[in-house]
């Protein structure tokens, strides 16, 4: 039943723009998402949708809320290298955080931000890094929670990597094509 659901947006279906990954802020006050290539967020208390006009021409990869919920971090390709940038919602200032080749961004339940680069998961603004002993084919990372990194191959395998020990659990999920 739909009793527990509430529609937050009313986008025009005429442009048929897709909504990208939805990210909840660490304090639970905002939802961040891409809509038709534009980064937007919803203030859940007022249900108002805000477009971040300063980033309209930015080709983003992944994006997350900063730990303070006042900034947004995202990856962007510059000179064939994926870089990490931060946009401050209060000051409207944009600054490069890391000029390394970051594959994507993730955040944990405490709001800590991490980036993937090569064979490692790095904690942003810290020297902590974790070796990723997962096969490249299963590097579709979806969640970072309670010290575990969850990933899948997108079809039939789920993985859970315990960051502190490096122990990898792999589970096969029955895959069936329905006719």
Give the uncertain stretches in residue-range form: none
Structural class: mainly beta
Distance between the termini: 27 Å
What is the N-to-C order of secondary-structure elements (H for helix, E for strand)? EEEEEEEEEEEEEEEE
- Give the helix level as a range of percent: under 10%
Summed up, the helix count is 0
Strand numbers in spatial order across the main sheet: 1-2-3-4
Number of strands: 16
Rounded mean pLDDT score:
84
Alpha-carbon Rg, integer: 18 Å
**How can the largest sheet be summarized?**
4 strands, antiparallel
Principal-axes geometry comes out as globular
Give the percentage of residues in beta strands.
over 45%
Main attributes of the structure:
179 residues; mainly beta; 4-stranded antiparallel sheet; 46% strand; globular
């Amino acid at each position: 039943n739909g009793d527990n659901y509430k529609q937050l947006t009313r986008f025009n279906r005429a442009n048929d723009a897709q909504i990208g990954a939805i990210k909840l802020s660490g304090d639970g006050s905002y939802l961040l998402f891409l809509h038709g290539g534009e980064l937007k967020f919803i203030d859940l208390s007022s249900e108002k949708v805000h477009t971040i006009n300063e980033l309209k021409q930015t080709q983003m990869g992944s994006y997350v809320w900063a730990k303070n919920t006042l900034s947004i971090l995202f990856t962007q390709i510059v000179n064939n290298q994926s870089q990490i940038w931060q946009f401050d919602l209060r000051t409207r200032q944009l600054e490069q955080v890391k000029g390394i080749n970051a594959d994507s961004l993730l955040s944990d339940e405490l709001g800590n931000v991490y980036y993937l680069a090569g064979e490692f998961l790095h904690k942003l603004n810290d020297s902590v890094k974790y070796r990723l002993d997962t096969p490249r084919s299963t590097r579709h990372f979806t969640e970072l929670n309670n010290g575990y990194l969850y990933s899948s191959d997108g079809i039939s395998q789920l993985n859970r990597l315990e960051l502190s020990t490096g122990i990898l659990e792999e589970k096969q999920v029955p895959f069936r094509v329905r006719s």
